[in-house]
Amino acid sequence: MGWLEGLVPWAIFLLSAAVIVYAGTKLSRYGDQIASLTGLGGLWIGSVLMAGATSLPEVFTTVSAALIDSPDLAAGDLFGAGMTNMLTLALIDLFHRQKKVWQQATLDHALSAGLAIFLTGLAAFFVLHGSDVKHGGVGLGSMLLLLFYIFGMRLVFRQENMRRRQREIELVVEGQSEEEAKQPSKREGLRRASLGFTVTALALLVAAPFLAGSANAIAEQSGISATFIGTALLGITTSLPELVTAIAAVRLGAFDLAVGNLFGSNAFNMAAFFLVDVAYSGGPLFNSISDAHAMTALWSILLMSTALMGIIYRVEERYMLIEPDSFLIILGYCLGLWLLFQ
């Protein structure tokens, strides 16, 4: 009966992961519908709305991990998701080379990518510093991450708003109008999308505690550290909605939505440390996290920097020896997991 009991955590993990993947995918689709019905900008939608929607599995799972007193599992999920999102970006570029995904994405993504790199580096500093101070139930480190994220997203919004005004001026000059009449069918579609968004978010909220609890049990049974379990197992599973959303966006030709979603998710995940810190009752969060997570964070920064260079590089003909881009990120991801496991 011992082996049967050992399978229970795996069964719970797989079932809860399936629910999270399905609900996260539906959540992304409803978010995309809300974006199109409200007329919000593409870069803003990818970096904020879609990033927040597809990152809900990470948020709910990491908060659940904090509630069961497993801060390494929570940190591993957030940092590991950053690496996995860059792996996703490399895969869609590798398997859709004819569409030139990275070259089709606007250079404005440099702002959201820079924000994600900055926040990840700041989180790594707090992990290594190890002397965070808690005020009002929240550590100073996680509070700064949230404030810098809000400030950075405000910059992204201002930039996208400027682009939108430029497009409106161009349409006026061309004698075209961007305004559309409010139709009952449009309002009904927005209502349905909002309802579906709420229902799937609740499904994620229910499944996340089971995912975190089963992953922690797997770590204890296997003898593998919660740091590696969080980075590899949870990081990959909770990032599957981003993968599905990015692939669907590329097939539709919505390259900015795909790229913005991935960089925006990495920035959002760093701000999620604030919620994890609120849920964790064992003192300042970053004081309880293993220093090994700093390596995961720094490795995520390397992968994001490589992806950013691939987007900025605009030469028409791309040579493998000059720009390995996606292959380098995939190899870097595998090497990072191997180093962490060691």
Written overview of the protein:
- The structure is a single chain.
- This protein is mainly α and 342 residues long.
- It has one domain (2-156, 183-341): Up-down Bundle (A middle domain of Talin 1).
- The chain is built from 15 helices and two strands.
- A two-stranded antiparallel ribbon has the order 1-2.
- A hairpin with a 2-residue loop joins β1 and β2.
- α1 packs parallel to α10, α6 packs antiparallel against α14 (292-312) and α14 packs antiparallel against α15.
- The radius of gyration is 20 Å and the shape is globular.
- The two termini are 32 Å apart.
- The relative contact order is 0.23.
- Mean pLDDT is 78; it is low at 177-182.
CATH-defined architecture: Up-down Bundle
Helix content range: over 70%
Total helical segments: 15
Described by strand count, sense and barrel closure, the largest sheet is: 2 strands, antiparallel
The sequence of SSEs as H and E is HHHHHHEEHHHHHHHHH
Helix-strand layout with pairing:
Blueprint: H1 2-38, H2 42-54, H3 56-67, H4 71-95, H5 101-104, H6 109-129, E1 134-135, E2 138-139, H7 140-173, H8 184-222, H9 226-237, H10 240-252, H11 255-271, H12 273-279, H13 285-288, H14 292-312, H15 325-341
Antiparallel strand pairs: 1-2
Helix pairs in contact: 1-2, 1-8, 1-10, 2-7, 2-11, 3-4, 3-8, 3-12, 4-9, 4-10, 4-11, 4-14, 4-15, 6-7, 6-11, 6-14, 7-11, 7-12, 8-9, 10-11, 14-15
What characteristics describe this protein?
two-stranded antiparallel ribbon; 342 residues; 15 helices; 1% strand; mainly alpha; single chain; 2 strands; A middle domain of Talin 1
